[in-house]
Design a protein that fits this description.
The structure holds two protein chains of two kinds. In chain A, about 75% of the residues lie in helices and about 0% in strands. Chain A is built from 15 helices and no strands. Chain B has one domain: MetI-like fold (Orthogonal Bundle), CATH 1.10.3720. The longest helix of chain B is centred in the C-terminal third of the chain and has 35 residues. The chains are: A mainly alpha, B mainly alpha.
């Protein structure tokens, strides 16, 4: 076998130069990918090194250098004492607000969407497809078109600028994509599963809790990842609907960094930025391929 | 990798099946529990995505200031809107931003996908690197790039200190270039997603096509450009729609990076609306702008229907 391979390789001399061009192109491929990777990694590197430098060192302007004098002071300050306007409590109130908002909005929005998807797959009623169509349309509507009437509506019922208010808003705007996700998932299940449930005389909720809920664990992992990062990273709804009391971390971060009074502390700003990005980044690196699945499935969300 | 491919297909299938009416698998029977269970959906679909939009449109014809009223003034808000430089510049900005980031995202995303498709080592590592910015919020993205673009301490000064003293790279401080800076930040955040969708599309192409191209002696790059690319319509449509919705909504990154400045050089329609319903207390004007923002979306949806209708007709003929 080896003999044959050797002779055939030797016999066709035209194949000779091919490996060399191949390796050249391989080098080209890796060169391109590595340069691209550097472009993507550069901001992260700059963020980290800036946050670990002292202000005088930053003012020397060596943006890319590793700090000569390592300091963790900016991190403590960003977390504990950085100022937004008159308040100097750092990012921690924002962090806990974001935790509260995310911890409530993620389960609520997912449970709602799960029931929607289940009903749309197995318990259609007159008009249910129309409602779904409207919901999908909603996935593409610019938020600005609905924000103001929503503000008026929520303040009429006393929920504007409250924690339940922002949870409702996240549930509303997460609904199109999550419902689509669950509808497609349930529609892909064998119908026999549902029919078996019907034979046992289980109704809407019986089949849902006994059969469908346990089946939907994998898709729910995708939904949790999608919603956790999406809600944590939200800025617009946090600015408009959360109110001062529940201001999420992204809004507070922006306020800290764009506060123009006093000396601009670039190292504190960058530490605050990393802290805000930390939660979704951890979710991303832990979830790995699930995250990719989530964004591909959630491509409509934008 | 299979998972990515599945996800990609799932997304494409999602688009395809989103509005096409599937054959009913079960007879529609009225089930009270089903209606009750989907109350939140009914409330959202009707209450938010229909009624709220109708109210936005209604208020765009009124002279509402801080609070909404129903004093109708015809098209006056729209006339004022289209004679306001700030708005016209916003529309121009979003158009430039949109074209640049979509074209840039598609080209760069497809290039990355093609290079990723070369049976490289460490594919997972590269994918993680290209995708991680998307996990971070656009506010974070905006703030990081604002820092990198800092004229005195950012990339510009770092390169100058390395010896290239005439180096200029601080787009955000100049009116003419600020928008390009925002585009770059946006690309950094979102290109990885386009790459992932395109890569899933590439992997979905029948391997027979590759064999056939090889037999015909078509060079690899030509196969990628003229044979495979046209076959990835689903992936391209998904990536395109994803980017379009992002462009129409662009808000966070601009607020974090430039706050619309310098001057009005990075002003966007989304910011115009928010400013008019908050600081500028002119709800009627804000709603007129919001209604205008709805237009391109409607056109896009109409276009999608047309494409699907065309595809259905073709399928019917075959």
């Amino acid at each position: 076998m080896t003999n044959l391979a050797a002779t055939s390789a030797g016999a066709i001399s035209a194949r000779g130069p091919k490996p060399r061009t191949l390796t050249a192109s391989r080098i080209g491929v890796y060169a391109f990918l590595i340069i691209a990777a550097l472009f993507f990694l550069l901001p992260l590197w700059v963020m980290v090194v800036t946050s670990l430098k002292t202000l005088p060192e930053i003012r020397q302007g060596h943006l890319f250098n590793w700090p000569e004098l390592l300091t963790f002071e900016p991190w403590l300050k960003a977390w504990d004492t950085a100022c937004t306007g008159r308040d100097c409590n750092g990012l921690k109130p924002g962090f806990w607000n974001s935790v509260k908002i995310t911890a409530l909005s993620v389960p609520v929005s997912i449970v709602v969407a799960m029931i929607n998807g289940y009903a749309l797959s197995f318990w259609k009623y007159r008009g249910s497809e129309f409602l779904f169509g409207v919901l999908i349309f909603g996935a593409f509507v610019p938020y600005q078109v609905v924000i103001y009437p929503l503000i008026i509506g929520l303040s009429k019922v006393g929920l504007f600028a409250t924690l339940p208010g922002i949870v409702i808003v996240h549930t509303i705007f997460g609904m199109p994509i999550l419902t689509l996700l669950y509808r497609n998932f349930f529609a892909s299940l064998p119908i026999e599963l549902f029919k078996a449930g019907r034979v046992d005389w289980a109704g809407f909720w019986g089949i849902f809790f006994r059969i469908m809920l346990p089946m939907s664990v994998p898709i729910t992992i995708v939904a949790v990842i999608l919603q956790t990062t999406g809600i944590w990273n939200d800025f617009l709804f946090g600015t408009v609907f959360a109110g001062r009391e529940n201001m999420p971390m992204t809004v507070q971060l922006n306020n800290i960094v764009t506060t123009t009074t006093g000396v601009r502390e670039y190292n504190v700003n960058m530490a605050a930025t990393i802290l805000t990005a930390a939660v979704p980044l951890v979710v991303y690196f832990i979830s790995g391929k699930w995250f990719v699945r989530g964004i591909a499935a959630g491509a409509v969300k934008g | 990798m299979t998972q990515v491919a599945q996800g990609g297909e799932g997304a494409a299938a999602g688009f395809a099946s989103a509005a096409t009416r599937r054959k009913p698998r079960l007879r529609k029977r009225l089930n009270v529990q089903s209606v009750l269970g989907t109350t939140p959906m009914i409330a959202t679909a009707v209450g938010v995505f229909i009624i709220c939009i109708i109210f936005s449109i209604i208020w765009s014809f009124t002279n509402s200031k801080l609070f909404p009223n129903f004093n109708f003034i015809g098209w006056a808000q729209y006339q004022r809107l289209w004679s306001t430089d700030r708005w016209i510049i916003s529309v121009q900005n979003v158009a430039v931003f949109g074209v640049l980031s979509i074209v840039g995202g598609m080209v760069f995303g497809y290039l990355l996908a093609v290079f990723m498709d070369q049976r490289i080592k460490q594919e997972d590592l590269f994918r993680s690197i290209f995708l991680y910015p998307f996990a971070m919020s656009l506010v974070v993205t905006g703030l990081v790039w604002q820092w990198m673009f800092d004229p005195n301490l950012g990339i510009q000064s770092a390169v100058r200190q390395m010896g290239w003293t005439s180096f200029e790279f601080a787009p955000l401080v100049k009116q003419e270039t600020a928008l390009y800076g925002v585009v770059l930040g946006g690309l950094w955040n979102g290109v990885g997603v386009t790459m992932a969708i395109m890569l899933a599309g590439l992997r979905g192409v029948d391997s027979e096509i590759w064999k056939a191209a090889k037999v015909d002696g078509i060079p690899t790059w030509k196969t990628y450009l003229f044979v495979v690319l046209p076959m990835m319509r689903g992936a391209i449509a998904t990536a395109f729609i994803l980017q379009c919705t992002g462009v129409v909504r662009v808000f966070d990154i601009v607020i974090a990076m430039t706050q619309g400045g310098p001057g009005v050089s990075t002003q966007m329609p989304a910011i115009y609306v928010i400013q008019h319903i908050t600081d500028r207390v002119n709800v009627g004007q804000g709603m007129a702008a919001a209604t205008m923002m709805l237009l391109p979306v409607m056109v896009l949806i109409g276009l999608q229907y047309l494409v699907r209708w065309n595809a259905n007709r073709r399928a019917g003929r075959a």
